[in-house]
Amino acid sequence: MKILIDMNLSPDWCQALSQFGVESIHWSNVGEPTAPDKILMEWAKSNGYVVFTHDLDFGSILAATQANAPSVIQVRVQDTVPEVLIDTVVAVLKQFEPQLIAGALITIDKSKSRVRILPIGADV
Q1: What pLDDT, on the 0 to 100 scale, is given for residue 122?
Q2: What is the pLDDT of residues 54-77, one digit of tens each?
């Protein structure tokens, strides 16, 4: 699984994730820093990446477009530095790897993680 780190998260996440064997890249290394979220999402989908973000717009985009990819992990906490969240993020990656591969929106907050299978709102 490959992780695309959104502009609103530190590039330090790349090194933190690599220590756990997780391949990642920061958006600033592959796209325009000011590119709209839609462009980032298209790149992630085309290149097989899961989006990691602190931006709640990605869930809205997935719901509005009924997209089945890319998967998105969104953190809903104030302190988003790797030193604070790395253990939680790695645990989520391991626990929900099948769902992320298939297509999911995962929200991480202080007390729990929630998973929504893509497409959001589809009749199952």
Answers
A1: 61
A2: 999 999 999 999 999 999 999 999
Q: Encoding tokens for residue 57?
A: 């717009």
Contacts of 73 (CB under 8 A, 6+ apart): 3, 50, 51, 52, 53, 89, 92, 93, 100, 106, 108
pTM beyond 0.70: the answer is yes
| Architecture of the CATH domain 2-117 | 3-Layer(aba) Sandwich (3.40)
Alpha-carbon 109 to chain mean position? 14
Query: CA 4 to CA 25: how far, in whole Å?
Result: 5
3-state secondary structure of 101: helix
